[in-house]
Every structure is written in structure tokens, then in C-alpha cells.
Specification:
- GO terms for molecular function: GTP binding; uracil phosphoribosyltransferase activity.
- Keywords: Allosteric enzyme, Glycosyltransferase, GTP-binding, Nucleotide-binding, Transferase.
- It catalyses: UMP + diphosphate = 5-phospho-alpha-D-ribose 1-diphosphate + uracil.
- It is an enzyme of class 2 (transferase).
- The chain has a single domain, classed as Rossmann fold, CATH 3.40.50.2020.
- Helix content is about 30%, strand content about 30%.
- It is built from 7 helices and 14 strands.
- Strands 1, 2, 5, 6, 7, 8, 9, 10, 11 and 12 form a 10-stranded mixed sheet that branches. It has a two-stranded antiparallel sheet with strand order 3-4. Strands 13-14 form a two-stranded antiparallel ribbon.
- Helix 2 runs antiparallel to helix 3 and helix 3 runs parallel beside helix 4.
- It is globular, with a radius of gyration of 18 Å.
- The structure holds 1-O-pyrophosphono-5-O-phosphono-alpha-D-ribofuranose, uracil and magnesium ion.
- The site of uracil has 9 residues, from helix 7.
């Protein structure tokens, strides 16, 4: 899959060390399927049932891209025929969905990483200030995961991603990836400059935010579209 600044994979080695290929910054996931699904997701006429499927598909494509530098270690198995040398992912991986909208990305990422731990963070944007408000955080005080993947379909001002990154920094997570389907240029730039070590994966970067800090053209409120809570009378 083509990525604008995607870190190189360890390619071909039986096992690899993430430090060799890890690179912070913004990684634009580019692929015809990604562009096709993002376009359908943007459409106002796309109903929540289809919208959820598009989020799942895009999350899987993105996770495939974002996991290419995960370290592996040798793992020998016995087939019905004989022993075979293989590999397994090394270390603990934490999936960190930001409630609510990030929940829509959890299952496809867990399908790819069934051994991962899921640590939820509850954040919503205050409607008047667009500042993130934390309402759920049960991260343990100790034993951080080795790699955390923050899941949130939208990165607008970057306030919510920043709050999540701060929380994971306090937990002591050494490598953090942010997976957002659509980002605003200003928000993604702000997060990248505050957390240059973070790997930020996005499918599309939109040019601006409107007066209510919604992404333009964006897709509206991702949480409402996933959970079918848009008020039809608004
Ligand atoms: O970059 P930011 O300016 O912080 O905006 C992005 C955040 O806004 C949305 O959440 P929202 O507050 O709508 O909560 P929800 O997921 O419960 O709908 C979105 O899912 C992000 O978490
Ligand atoms: O455009 C936006 C901005 C924040 N949250 C969303 O769901 N959409
Ligand atoms: Mg919302």
C-alpha cells in the first residue's frame, strides 16, 4: 500500500526490531480502496449501517499499514508434517479507542491483532469551546504496553488526540500510533509538532475547520453517524 511517509518495513528478516524502522510524523495512507471508501463515508446520504461498514473497512486497511513496523520474534511451530520456523509479534500492544467514535474501529483492528489489550479513553468535545473533556480513563498506573494504537475516526483541532497522547505519555508507553480516518491540516500539524515521536496515520487530510471546529469538507459528526444519534429535526 502506498504511504506518503510510511516507515520502511523490516523486510524479509525472520525477526525485527521496531526501533530500526520507527519514524514519527504524519503518514498518509494512500490506496484506491481507501479513497473510494472515504468518499462514500463522506456522503450525507450514507446511512449509519453502511457508514459503520466503511469505518470498519478503512480501519482494517489503515491498521495493516500502521502495523508494518511491529517487531517480531522467532517462533517455532509443529505442523502435521514437521517443525517449521516462523515468527510472532513481540511485546504487548494496546488498542486505545477514544469514545465514542473510536469504538467503530476496534473490531477490525482486534481482528488483525487478536492478542492486543483494549484500553478505552472517554473524551468528548465541549460544544462551546471544542476543548476535550475526559470522562473515562481506567489505565493502570504501571506496566505500560509496548505499543499503543489510538483509534479515532476524526482528528479536527487535535485536542482529543493530544489529550490521549498526554495520557499515554504519563503511562509511559514508548511507541504510540494514532489512527484517524480524516484529519484537518491544522489539527494534524498541531499534534505532530507537540508529539514528534508519535506516528500519525490518516486516510485524508482536509484543508480547514469551520466556525464550530468541524472538519471541512469532513463528514459531520462521526460518533453520531456510527451510532445513529443524529437528530433528524436539527
Ligand atoms: O480533534 P478534536 O477537535 O478534538 O475533534 C475530534 C474529536 O471529536 C469527536 O468526538 P466527539 O466529541 O464528537 O465525541 P463522540 O465520539 O462521543 O461523538 C471525534 O470522534 C474526536 O474524538
Ligand atoms: O468534523 C468533526 C470534528 C470533530 N468530530 C467529528 O466527529 N467531526
Ligand atoms: Mg461526536
Amino acid at each position: 500500500m502506498a504511504g506518503a511517509t510510511v516507515p520502511g518495513s523490516a523486510g524479509g528478516a525472520a525477526h525485527s526490531d521496531a526501533k530500526a524502522s520507527r519514524r514519527g510524523g504524519i503518514h498518509l495512507v494512500r490506496h484506491p480502496l481507501v479513497e473510494h471508501h472515504v468518499t462514500r463515508m463522506r456522503r450525507e446520504s450514507t446511512r449509519p449501517s453502511e457508514f459503520r461498514g466503511l469505518v470498519r473497512r478503512l480501519a482494517a486497511l489503515m491498521a495493516y499499514e500502521a502495523t508494518q513496523d511491529l517487531p517480531t520474534q522467532p517462533y517455532r511451530v509443529t505442523t502435521p508434517i514437521c517443525d517449521a520456523d516462523g515468527v510472532q509479534i513481540k511485546g504487548r500492544i494496546g488498542i486505545v479507542p477514544i469514545l465514542r467514535a473510536g469504538l467503530g474501529m476496534v473490531d477490525p483492528v482486534l481482528d488483525l491483532l487478536p492478542m492486543a489489550e483494549v484500553w478505552h479513553l472517554g473524551l468528548y468535545r465541549d460544544e462551546a469551546t471544542a476543548q476535550p473533556v475526559s470522562y473515562y480513563d481506567k489505565l493502570p498506573a504501571k506496566r505500560p504496553v509496548d505499543v499503543a494504537m489510538i483509534l479515532d475516526p476524526m482528528l479536527a483541532t487535535g485536542g482529543s488526540a493530544t489529550a490521549a497522547l498526554m495520557t499515554l505519555r504519563e503511562w509511559g508507553v514508548p511507541q504510540v500510533k494514532v489512527l484517524s480516518l480524516i484529519a484537518a491540516q491544522a489539527g494534524v500539524d498541531a499534534v505532530a509538532s507537540q508529539f514528534p515521536e508519535a506516528q500519525i496515520y490518516v486516510c485524508q487530510i482536509d484543508p480547514e475547520l469551520n466556525a464550530h471546529k468541524f472538519i471541512v469538507p469532513g463528514l459531520g459528526d462521526a460518533g453520531d453517524r456510527i451510532f445513529n444519534t443524529l437528530d433528524p429535526h436539527e
